[in-house]
Design a protein that fits this description.
Two copies of one chain form a homodimer. By secondary structure, the first copy, chain A, is an alpha+beta fold. In chain A, 42% of the residues lie in helices and 23% in strands. Chain A has helices spanning 3-18, 26-41, 88-105, 125-141, 192-206, 210-222, 224-235, 241-250, 263-274, 289-298, 302-308, 324-332, and strands at 49-51, 58-60, 66-76, 109-119, 145-153, 158-168, 183-187, 255-258, 276-281, 315-319, 338-346, 351-354, 360-362. In chain A, the strands form three sheets. In chain A, strands 8-10-7-11-9-12-13 form a seven-stranded mixed β-sheet, with helices on both faces. In chain A, helix 3 runs parallel beside helix 4. The longest helix of chain A is centred in the N-terminal third of the chain and has 18 residues, at 88-105. The interface between A and B is large, with 73 and 73 residues.
């Protein structure tokens, strides 16, 4: 484990060390004991939660004036994470964050989460405590209440979150509204999560040979901040919830999606559903310095991380050119930049990337496909 | 495989035989190909589904006058089912049914389902088609639209359903409202699912010895209808949705829960949350003839199936004695019987079972606990 990772995990570890029942396993307290424990650890919900954890379903107040948004996304051990590579608190934050990002991409406000867990019975109770610490931390940060879920025994850890949100109907942003002539915009920066994952993989592979290992460690000492930044982007991505609300409030955007599989793949969904093409400009891609530094250390192309890395959880949207200034200003209020990275073109013009050297190449999905990958 | 099971599966098999792409695996069509395929196979949703499958979230119209009900429940291979013992269509029906039952137990009306799937990449595409046939069949039967979900690769099949429903606030039924003096009532019959599971296990174990195997087969030939009935109860339980609505509409019930873990366990949740005790009368337990016949053939006690068998998905409720007639009449309108099986007593009197022979014994949970089991 690198110092950076150690630092990143120290908070969770500190909590673990002083936790009650450190040595206890789930098999010691049973399913109902665990449900009671979780319900006690979570804050009392507000009055809008008429029935929370502990009955057959949650019962919730919602507004009939708004649309209900509903999404679910799973994190499965061995497929989305490795148990010994992510702290449970980080996993809790990330599992909720990827769902918050989906609500954000519709222009919505997250409200209620259900947490479906599959847990091995020899898992430490303190591990589940820390998972819920992460879930609750992320929920509280974005005004969301954990109102229910279910727990089952499972050989692999799985965390499947359902998130409910609301959006004013006139602010709803779909993937299908992009029009020829629109600009393509993206919040924040691209490629940091992919660079973080690549760093982890390189370090892992480096373990095979002493020299490579020492090499990686040495690099790391000289760029601790950069590595920490890309690892944080990978382990605890920030869902763009206030940014999505600000974008929706302008009424200027025509389509929106969140970046989970990588820009090259996700922009394709907007193109397909809007029946348009796109031209992305490499020179306009916002790539953080840390991502460039880590990419260089790994001998990798930062643009590849930005296009294919995945898991950036930034918002990708389209808007008429004359509304871009307004959108940049609105998103800027949240402290997050919004960059113009290309143009929506006719479907017949295809999906292309204008390289920094002036050549144009096809922009093809290289994002993670769960079955082909 | 028994004739009964063969019969039960023949519909699914017939569909499979004529299915398109029988030999194709999920790895052949990829994640997005599968999502497209599912979206095309499902019926077009009604106008209340503003955004369905294919965007970042579903966007749904709901009523601000009613409470939103939200629940999720998972079916995991090896834990809740065996891949070669249940047809995919049956699994689809059951995975939705157990969630419909939760909405029913709150007095609610189911509306929207999200389907989270974990699927091995070598799984046949036709298997997923049949799963969705089952899901859609059950959804349509109870006025529910499948509006979204997510799919991930997984070594084990997992089907995690989130179900959203609605209930008028004055009809909401919780676990916590039972009062001393109330009667304890149950819909339908008890123990059939447990008897079905016991039959499957006995047949499996009987394979070890030719004699035992022949014995089981011979029994079966003489009681095909009974075995078919308890197997159907196990594989495709009927959620008591109209019954739950009818009960809620009377305003007479004080508490309600659905029977998933077994009466002895589930009545305990009402006792705990209502701070009461209970006295169940063995002689009043509704046990179908088929359950008794199968129990006798297995040398098992039918009362044990009724109390501890689990997965009956009947509704268990409490109501003042003078409202029982009204409830029996209301539920009777749906074609389902409602039986009075005992009394709510002070918490100090504990939870007891009055046996048919006049003795009283403690009624202790023997239901399936996912970690202790």
């Amino acid at each position: 484990m690198t110092k950076d990772k150690e630092l990143a995990l120290s908070k969770a570890k500190g909590r673990k060390a002083k936790g009650i029942g450190e040595a206890r396993r789930l098999s010691d307290i049973g399913e109902f004991g665990l449900i009671d424990r979780i319900a006690r650890r979570l804050p009392a919900p507000g009055a809008e939660v008429v029935v929370g954890i502990g009955d057959d379903t949650a019962a919730l107040r919602v507004s009939g004036d708004r649309l209900l948004l509903a999404t679910c996304d799973i994190q499965l051990e061995g497929h989305h994470f490795l148990r010994d590579k992510i702290a449970p608190q980080q996993l809790g934050r990330k599992a909720l964050a990827i769902n918050l990002s989906d609500i954000a991409s519709m222009g919505g406000r997250p409200r209620y989460a259900l947490v479906s867990l599959g847990l091995p019975k020899d898992l430490a109770v303190s591990w589940v405590d820390a998972l819920y610490d992460g879930l609750q931390e992320e929920a509280a940060r974005f005004g969301t209440s954990i109102v229910g879920g279910n727990i089952t025994g499972s050989p692999l850890i799985l965390v499947d979150i359902t998130l409910l949100g609301e959006v004013e109907e006139d602010r709803l942003l779909r993937r299908s509204g992009a029009r020829v002539g629109d600009r393509l915009l993206v919040t924040g920066t691209l490629g940091a999560s992919g660079a973080g994952l690549a760093w982890l993989v390189a370090r892992e592979e480096g373990r095979g040979t002493g020299d490579e290992k020492r090499g990686t460690r040495n690099e790391e000492r000289g760029m601790r901040d950069e590595v920490g930044e890309v690892l944080a982007a990978h382990f605890t991505p920030t869902p763009r919830v206030p940014e999505g609300r600000a974008i929706g409030a302008t009424g200027a955007a025509t389509a929106m999606i969140d970046l989970s599989d990588g820009l090259a793949s996700d922009v394709g969904h907007i193109c397909e559903l809007s029946n348009v093409g796109v031209r992305v400009e490499e020179a306009r891609l916002p790539i953080a310095l840390a991502t460039r530094v880590v990419a260089e250390a790994l001998g990798r192309d930062p643009t590849a991380f930005a296009l294919f890395g995945g898991e950036d959880y930034e918002l990708l949207l389209t808007a008429p050119a004359d509304r871009v200034g307004e959108l940049v200003a609105a998103v800027g209020q949240t402290g997050t930049p919004l960059m113009d990275i290309g143009a929506i073109v006719p479907a017949a013009a295809g999906r292309t990337l204008l390289l920094a050297d002036g050549r144009t190449i096809p922009l093809e999905p290289g994002g993670w496909d769960h079955f082909r990958g």
